[in-house]
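Exercise: predict the fold of this chain.
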Amino acid sequence: MATRISACGRIDTVMRPGFPAIPMPDAIVLIPARLASTRLPGKPLVDLNGVPMIVHVFRRAHAAAIGEVVVATDSEAVAAAVEKAGGRAVMTRSDHTSGSDRIYEALEAVDPEHKVDIVLNVQGDLPTIEPTDIRAALKPLADEDVDISTLAAVITDPGERTNPNVVKVSGPQVGPGRLQAKNFTRANATGNGPHYHHIGLYAYRRPSLERFVGMPPSANEQRERLEQLRALDAGMRIDVMIVNSVPLGVDTPEDLQTARKLLGG
């Protein structure tokens, strides 16, 4: 079954044979998967050792055992690939500018009764993400003061300190392996370390996600091209769990070859 949301906001359900209904848990993992990509066309469906990349991500998110896992996509082909692998997909509009907007649309479609309390946004181009790291993102939300949680890893490659494609996060330590984010930036990391490489996986309280997608982009967000700065600028609290490594993000043909090697092909 896939759920399609029309341009006028009507929710249409597309039934496909053999797909069972899944009870809605208190937490859900949503994986945004947009088919269009300038650097790697058809990215969610690229072959990784005989399996589409989006299916690798789905399986790792499922292994995290957090709750139902749903792929939010604008592509019938992506939905079909997920459902063939035994997963669930939700059809969303093609004009979303961010994964956050896409998962919010999907969330409202699959849980109109608002039973879900916690929403995890796992990017669809992270086929090597560790299930234990996905689970780690939930930990800060045990603190009622935290609106959003995310992940980071210590920068060990000196080249990453000056790489604008590596987003750095900084803030004070508020617990074992946990920071309160005060800034995200693409600028060079300077001064004494450790410095942290931000990993773009987020866990939201549902009201926090709703608030976030309802706000306009902030000036800092637009300057840095970092969506998470919108939340900080609005006074929302983001805590960061430190994990051992950064998962490979597949954005280019070179990344694709690396992923195939890492996954044993």
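Check your answer against the key: The domain at 131-246 is CATH 3.90.550.10 (Spore Coat Polysaccharide Biosynthesis Protein SpsA; Chain A).
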